[in-house]
Amino acid sequence: MTANKQLLMLPGDGIGREVMAVTERVIDWYAKYRSLQFDVEHDLIGGIAFDTHGTPLTDSAIERAKQADAVLLGAVGGPQWDGLAREHKPEAGLLKIRKEMGLFANLRPAVVFPALAEASTLKTELVSGLDIMVVRELTGGIYFGEPRGIDDLGGGERKGFNTMVYTTEEVRRIARVAFDLAKKRNGRVCSVDKANVLDVSILWREEVIALHQEEYPDIELSHMYVDNAAMQLVRDPKQFDVIVTGNMFGDILSDAAAMLTGSLGMLPSASLGAEAGGRIPSLYEPVHGSAPDIAGKDMANPLATLQSFSMMLRYSFDLAEEAQLLETAIERVLESGLRTADIMQDGKARVSTSTMADAILRELDKAAD
Ligand code: IPM
Ligand code: MG
User: How many angstroms separate the CA atoms of 192 and 243, rounded?
Assistant: First the structure.
């Protein structure tokens, strides 16, 4: 018997808690029918952590996250915390856990389910069959660069500033993740930067090229400026296989890529760190936010979080077959015409979060028979 997998759940705020509850039902299913045992612990992150402990992420939560085999996070944020100082805001908890766990590689797949191709705001033929992977650097760049701040210049003048910074090693380790993923996919990487303007991007591009020549000559590498990449994503997204880019560009482009698929409510993500002692620190979360407007109304789409869990099965536990079970169940439920509000289409049946969850579990039951 292998030891139970240690899973830390951080549901967070808003719909985070509802979609996590659905995931717990699925985890119970795996325990019951697939003898896949998780020891699940819970902790707080975001606004609820601030309300309870006065900080969006406690040191003890960080410690538990570091000890766990994997972390599953819901979402953070809500209007009631908008007025807080930056270090107390829910988002600060998210940035802190990424940094503390060393999660430098953020994988954001944008995959269009056949049943949802028509839900995209783009023409169906542009997105049907779309399968791209955005690899976003997550612990560096302008999000964390120093110096940063707001200076008082006197006389009513102020200066706000941040620093966009990347080192050789930071660029190479994220590029390596992208090249390795491309090997298992269609063998193409597009590196996105702003090397026509920014020094940090000139270095980024040079390092990506050098690593490519040294270690990945078989991968097809291209480069794109970020403004062009944004345009190409909505013009002809299927030209991409793996996109690799820095923290802020990746934040922006991954939202655009996500929307190609019809709904943010469908997209999972994985954030991975460097291997140490045979373990890779990992955190999985849906790309969508806490959606305070629909929180508590049994309306949220749980599929992004369920897919984040299936990414966990694949990436953290090497359980591709188990992951496939869940992914197939999701596909079947979508094919059967059930839709949460965010992906509702004419002629389909609009259902609540819990009805969607029931349907997923029924499909899983069928697979287990
Ligand atoms: C994301 C989010 C976060 C980010 C925010 C909430 C801090 O937009 O995960 O993409 O900018 O990284
Ligand atoms: Mg974002």
Answer: 7
